[in-house]
Each structure stands twice: as structure tokens, then as C-alpha cells.
Amino acid sequence: MALLLGGFTAWLGLRQAPVPTAAQDADAALPVWRLLTMGAGMLPALGLHSRLRDLEEMSTRPHRQAEQRYLIGLSVACAAAFLAFASMTLNPAQITVVARSLLGWLGLSLISGRLFGWQLAWALPLAVSGVLTYWGGGAGNGYTWWQFTARPHNDVPSLLLSACLLAAGALAYSASAWRRKSLRCYHTSPASQANVEQPGIAAGIASTPPQAS
Amino acid sequence: MTALWLHLRASRLLWALPPLTALILAVLLLRPDYWVGVWPETGAAAQIPAIFLSTVAAGAAAWISTSRTRHRLAELTAASAIRAAAAEAYRLGAVVIVVVVPYLIGQAVAFVYTARTFPVGIHLWFGYAAMGIVVILFAAVWGWAFGRYLSAVYAPLVASLTWLVFQVFPADRAALSVISGPVWQQPNLSVLAVRLAAVAAFTAAVMWARPRRTQWSANRNAPLLPVAAGLVTVAATLSTSGVIDRAVPDRSLCVTGEIDVCLWPEHEKYVPMVRRVDARVASLPAGFQRPARLHEYGIERKQFSYRGQTVTQLEGIDISEGLQSNLGAGVANAVMTETLKPCDLDSIRQAKDITANAVGRWLELYLGQGSSAEYQAVGAPKEFAEAWSTALAAYTKLTPAQQREWAQQRLAQLATAYCE
Fold it and tell me: Do A46 and B157 touch (CB under 8 A)?
């Protein structure tokens, strides 16, 4: 899939198309490579979908670790394949932007997947891309600071934003059903904690024990 | 009807209605509001959300389309008494309704904004509103077809991404959707009807084609019919153009003054702006010559032959974005052309004299009252940049009376040096 997207990027990526924006006097044009980058950035999160998800929610550390390795491996492989193909026609500055926005899209799709289920990991990135395109500014006045998919390759705020999105995505990914449940238990009143077993241990999580009251 | 209502009520997509409506209204209202008061621009502005909505429609339709296999109900539904095509149609209908309702709300809000002044040309609003609906319907079937034949994990991604690329790249030239509705263009209703018919045929083909084979049926047919219908619809879209140039209006709206300016009748709301610029023209010092009459873009046409073909070129001043600076620049250009008519332009060019350019640029600023973002002389020759900065300095640092004196002196210099 990533190869396919990369191929398309190499083939059509440099074409530009006018898009609607909220800016006046802006000849905004959206290069196709930006759209395809979003597709490539969503693939790893989609790959987390499993038909046995109910069963997997009960899983313990070995499975979680395997899943983490799978996610990281898939992300690296997708990114590498996509970038390799894309670099056939895109110039180094554009490749840097692609690599940067891949981080952001991956983070967003992880958040989306955690919220709506991994099969719907595409929903949030798609919505965000609409917002970025429409309100993110255009050719005339440059892009707004949060348009992380289009700012120049050496732009620091975009890099930070992409990294933050990836971190938020990683956080969302780590918020498994077990962890959320254990957090909820710690937040209940001290009186009810007496009845709660320590779920953190069962889930194999290193978290702070409840404060003794 | 009851079945459709049941599908709609049971659909989780209903939760998407409030956020989608909010998004549509944001897209419509959080942007420059020059569309208010002009019907074609109103229709086009409220049609822009359809570009985003159709992408959502493609993804959502693909998602809902796969629900049968996701929930492993393929066997069950294949064995049900109700016709498979009808069942599919109800589900697709529910998706379409969830996406079309926010779109129509957006169009209704836009309608109300412009209906307050109710200018002429409401049929143009209707055309653009219909255009958005065609886009959404096409996208929904597009997504549904992908959901039919791809796995649930990839179908929505592939559907929405391919739709987005199709829409902004090849279909843009065919004006499947537009990003503005300038008054000299109109939606091509017959083309819209053809597209709608093609989309309807595509829908029927997708509905009637047998679903992906179940374990027990021997249906291994390739989806020839839906693919063919899809390709025909794409071809019907790409080979036509959704907008065409309008005919010259029978009676244009002419504002008389120092210079008569004729507008499209739909541009009634720009009459005060024309009068404002005309008052500035009236205050110009002696030396400036005024043309008798100017036209808005598209009212004047020039025909010439190019490689044996007769080409019609639209001419005039483009004020479609409602900026006084655009009108000012157009009028300034005409005034300078008229003023420099008796002069030897070639010798001005050879002498690299910036005076004429400086006065022209000052006139643009003076008439347009510097009302918008200034365009800059990027990549222009050095003389231009110099002339423009001279003009800007005169415009910002001198009082209006001093400016007029400044311009008059420059014109007198030009007249003695280059003009008869």
C-alpha cells in the first residue's frame, strides 16, 4: 500500500490543484504529494486493526510488546517505502516536509484509532486535513504556524507540532483499556479503593500505587 | 420510507450530523464575506463545503458499505427475503441523507444572508446549489463501490483519498465543483443533468451488482458492470465543463458620473463603491484625462481570430471579490491610458523614466484608497519597484491636497518631455 502511494507520489506528486481557502487573494494550490502523504501516514494505525480485538484487550505484556514492535516496524517500513519512492521526483526540501508531516499524520491517526477504533483511524486525519487546507493560509500570505504539512522544511514550530502530535498519538496508543480502567480506579474515593485489587500489576504496568490515606 | 427511516435512526452516522453542520457553517462564515448580496457567489460559497463533505461522504459510504462484512452478516443478508439491491439502496440513502442535510443547511443559511437584499439572478444560486448535490451524490456512490469490493480496513481510506485526488486534480478542470462563482460565469445546467443521470446509472449498477460472494454462493463474477458504469461517469464528468461563460446582459447596470461604469445587474451591491471611486475621480487635478465609459469584466468582449478560430476574449474590470482596490486599479489603468494617449510611450520606455509608472501607481492607491492587501512588485524590473515605492511614499506621507499637487507636477513634467 505504501509502495503504491509512493509510486503515485512519484508519478503525480508534483501536480498542483487549486483548492478553496478562507484567505482572500490567495492563489492557493495543493500539491498532490501532500494528500498522498496523509494516506501513507495513516497506514500503520490502520494496520493495528484486528478481528480478535476483544480478546486482545485482555492481553498481557508479551502481546503488547509484540504489538508495539509491529507498530514501530510498520511505521518505519511504510515511511521508508513511501519516502524512497517519493524521492524519485520530489526535491530534498519537499522530502523533509513529507517526513515531518508523516510524524504528525501518524500521531493523529493513532489518536483517531484510539477514539473511534483502529478501522476508523482515517477519520480524524481527514477532518484535520480539511481544516489545514481551508484555514491554513495560502500562497499570498504564507501558511499559518500550525499548517505543519506545508510550512518550509526548516520551520521549527511545524517540527515541534508534528513531534507533539506523534507524542500525543503514542500516548493515545498506550492508553489501552486496562490502563484507562486502572486510572479510573485510582481516581475513585479512598473508601472504595479498599475493594479494588491492584489492576496495574495484573496488566503488567509500572504505575504509581494508590496513595495511602 | 419506513425502512429508510429505520436505517437512518439506527445509523451511527447520525452522531456526525451536529459536527458536520458546525463545520459547514464555519467553512461558510469564517471567510471573507464578499459573497453576501451576490447570488452566484452565494451559491458558490455555500457549495465549497461540498468539496469537504463529499470526501467525508466517500469515506463514510465506504465504511457503512463494509458493515455487512464487518459484522459478518453477509450470509444472513444474502438469504433474506428482501431484494438485495433494495436493502443496499436504503443503506446508501441513509448515508446520503446524513451528508446532504448539513449541506442544505449551509445553503439555506447562505440563502438567508443574500435574501435580505434580494438582488437579481437567483437562478444562478440554484445552479451552484445543485452542483454541490451532484458532487456529494457522486462521492457517496464512489465510496460505496470501494466498500463493496475492498476490505473494511482499507476501503474508506482508499475511497476518500482517491476521491480527494480525483476531485482536486482532474475534475477541477471540468468544474465538477467550483471555488468561486464569478458573475460572468454560470453553472451549466444541462451538463449537471447529464452528470446526475450518469451518477444515477452508476448507483443503479453498484446496487444491482451482486455483493461480494458469500461462502455458499457460486457468484464469482468480476464487478464488470459497476466498474464500467463508474468509468462512464468519470468520463462524462471529465469531458464536460460544469460552468460556462454567460452571455452579455441585455441591460447592464450603468452608474453615471465622471466616468460611467457599467456593472452586471447582479452586482447591484457594488454601486456605492463605484460612486465612492467616482468621487475620487472627480477630485483629480487637471491633466488627467478620463475615458467616457468603463465596463465590468465580461460585459465587454473582443473577438479575434487565432489560428483560424474565432476566439472571444472577456475584457473589463474584475471586481468579483468586492475590493475597492481592484476597481481603483482598473479605473486608474484606464485613466492613465487615456492621459498618456498623446505621448510617445516608446521614448518613455527607452529613457527608463519611472514618472509615468509612479503616477499610475499613485492613482491606483488614491482611487482604491489602499483598501486591501497591497500587491507587490515581486520579480518586476527594478524601475517598477522604484516607481511603486515612490508612489507609496507619496500616498502615505502627503496630505490628499499635497498628493494631488504632486501628481499634477509629475504629469506636467511628462507632458513637456514626451507629449505633443
Answer: yes
- In-domain check, residue A191: yes
What single-letter amino acid sits at B91?
Answer: R
Is ipTM over 0.95?
A: no
Report pLDDT digits (tens) over B64-98.
998 888 887 877 777 778 888 888 899 999 999 99
Window 39-68 of A: residues touching B by CB (8 A cutoff) are 39, 42-43, 46-47, 49
Q: B157, A35: Cβ pair inside 8 Å?
A: no
User: In Å, how far is B69's CA from the nearest CA of chain A?
Assistant: 12
Higher pLDDT pick, B74 / B252: B252
Domain of A186, in residue numbers:
2-206
In this prediction, residue B383 carries a pLDDT of 79
Look at A24 and B70 and tell me if their CB atoms are within 8 Å.
no
**pTM reported for the whole predicted model:** 0.86
Domain count, chain A: 1
What pLDDT, on the 0 to 100 scale, is given for residue A200?
45
- d(CA A45, CA A119) in angstroms, rounded, equals 8
Residue A202 has pLDDT above 60, yes or no: no
pLDDT band at residue A209, thresholds of 50, 70 and 90? Answer: very low
Question: Is A32 in contact with B51 (Cβ distance < 8 A)?
Answer: no
Segments of chain A assigned E as strands: 16-18, 29-31, 137-138, 142-143
A45 vs B contacts (CB less than 8 Å): none
The secondary structure of B277-304 as a DSSP string is HHHHHHTPPTT----SEEEBTTTEEEEE
**What is the dihedral sign for C-alpha A157, A158, A162, A163?**
negative
For residue B29, which residues of chain A lie inside 8 Å, CB to CB?
none
Show which of residues 51-110 on chain B sit within 8 Å of chain A, judged by CB atoms: 51-52, 55-56, 59, 63, 70
Residue A211 counted as domain residue: no
A42 in a domain, yes or no? yes
For residue A41, being part of any structural domain is answered with yes
B218 Cβ partners below 8 Å, 6+ apart? none
Distances (CA, A) of A204 to A48, A66, A70, A174, B218: 21, 14, 19, 13, 49
Q: How far apart are CA A99 and CA A37, in angstroms?
A: 9
Tell me how many degrees the CA angle A83-A86-A87 measures, rounded to the nearest 5.
80
